[in-house]
Amino acid sequence: MPFPADRIRFGVSLSPHPPAEQVALAERVEALGFDSLWCGDHIVFNIPLYESLTLLSFYAARTRRIRVGTCVYLLALRHPTVVAKITSTLDALSGGRLIFGVGVGGEIPKEFEAVGVPRNERGTRVNEGIEVVRALWTQAPASFSGRFFKFEGVNIEPKPVQPAGPPIWIGGRSDAALQRAGRLGDGWVSYVVTADRYRQSVEKIKASADAAGRSLDGFETAHLAFITVGRDYETAKAAWVKRLTKRYNQDFAPLAEKYGFIGPPARCMEQIERFIEAGCRHFILNAICEVPDEAEQLELLASEILPHFRKNPLTPPSFPPHPTSPHGGEEKR
Predict the structure, then answer these.
(1) How many CA atoms lie within 13 A of 77 on its CB side?
(2) Cis peptide before 158 (omega within 30 of 0)
(3) What residues contact residue 94 under an 8 Å CB cut-off, 6+ apart?
(4) Which of 99, 134, 207, 298 maximizes the CB count within 10 A of its CB?
(5) What would the pLDDT profile of 245-287 be if each residue is shown by its tens digit?
(6) 282-287 vs 9-13, strand pairing mode
(7) Are 205 and 318 in contact (CB under 8 A)?
(8) What DSSP assignment string belongs to 88-99?
(9) Strand ranges, E, within the chain
(10) 291 in helix, strand or coil?
(11) Could you tell me the CA-to-CA distances from 95 to 1, 54, 99, 139, 200 in Å, in that order?
């Protein structure tokens, strides 16, 4: 169920809060007019995280309109048949509001060790897992034979509300992720890339789909934006660097100028506009700040950022049925 192609979309990814605050923020995000509500996913991480699909079930129960999604779910860490059952249930109970963002992960080897999955198999397992969940969402009964998963005549009920199942958005920025998006995805979501690299990545996705003979009509393009709105750039940057350095256990100071959406609203809007020009149509805004300040950041995003794009809507162009080949190279990192 793609979003109507009438304007740029904005979602929110929330930081972990105590339970009552978490669901209250989810309700506020919907009331503020955002289009979607997201959560990240890890089994083992540098900071505490709720289990993603459990958290989305709470969001869905306390909201009515807003779409809910994973950004992104590490499918290689779970058995896809169980995942198909959970996501079918979540889509049914939410009235067809689930977006299933999927990625391979790998930056924390301990979580692969903890579940007994070799880290070097994660890409192949995700590819198979996507096919498994789609088969179980849509076929009755379903059969599958792959390297890791095999079954015959299996039926999972109830099916998702969305006829083809929840849209699967592929997360990542590597060539392998872009190829996966073109061959298997209903959308793509990036993070920590420049607008130039985003543009080049969209072209690579088109080329991958073309090689696979797929149409990308209705394909969604998204970006997870680490954003800090502040009165001045330096103060906002300090907050951005401090929080992300703790979250990812690495120094984010060298990354701020290149990848951050940081500073006064006008500066943040300029960065968003660069990504729109590069082909992005759905922004997942992750407010980077101390946890008690997140509610204030959400209010600023809703009052200072969203109105500009709601008053100046853009009509996103659809992907052509037969995408063209890429014309640019990937940024070196």
Answers:
(1) 23
(2) yes
(3) 56, 60, 68, 161
(4) 99
(5) 999 999 999 999 999 999 999 999 999 999 999 999 999 999 9
(6) parallel
(7) no
(8) HHHHHHTTS-EE
(9) 9-13, 36-39, 67-70, 73-74, 98-103, 142-145, 150-154, 168-171, 187-191, 220-229, 261-263, 282-287
(10) helix
(11) 12, 16, 12, 20, 35
CA dist., res. 288 & res. 238, Å (int): 10
Q: How far is the C-alpha of 45 from the C-alpha of 67, rounded, in Å?
A: 25
Q: What is the mean pLDDT of residues 84-110?
A: 97
Q: Is the pLDDT of residue 315 over 80?
A: no
In the three-class reduction of DSSP (H, G, I as helix; E, B as strand; rest coil), residue 17 is classed as: coil
Query: In whole angstroms, how large is the CA radius of gyration of the chain?
Result: 19
Partners of 170 in the β-ladder: 102, 188
Sign of torsion, CA 131 86 191 115? negative
Task: Determine what percent of the chain falls in helix, strand and coil, rounding each to the nearest 5.
Answer: 45, 15, 35
* pTM reported for the whole predicted model: 0.92
The DSSP symbol for 254 reads: G
Q: What is the dihedral of CA 178, 202, 105, 39, to 10 degrees?
A: -140
- The residues facing 287 across adjacent strands are 227
Residues 228, 288 contacting (CB under 8 angstroms): yes
DSSP state of 113: H
Dump the DSSP string for 35-84: SEEEE---SS-SS----HHHHHHHHHHH-SSSEEEES-EEGGGS-HHHHH
Interhelix angle 195-212/175-184, nearest 10 degrees: 50
The dihedrals phi and psi of 19, each to the nearest 5 degrees, come to: -50, -50
Residue 279 near residue 199 (C-beta atoms within 8 A): yes
C-alpha closest to that of 52 among 84, 80, 16, 88: 16
Does the pLDDT at position 322 exceed 60?
no
DSSP 268: H
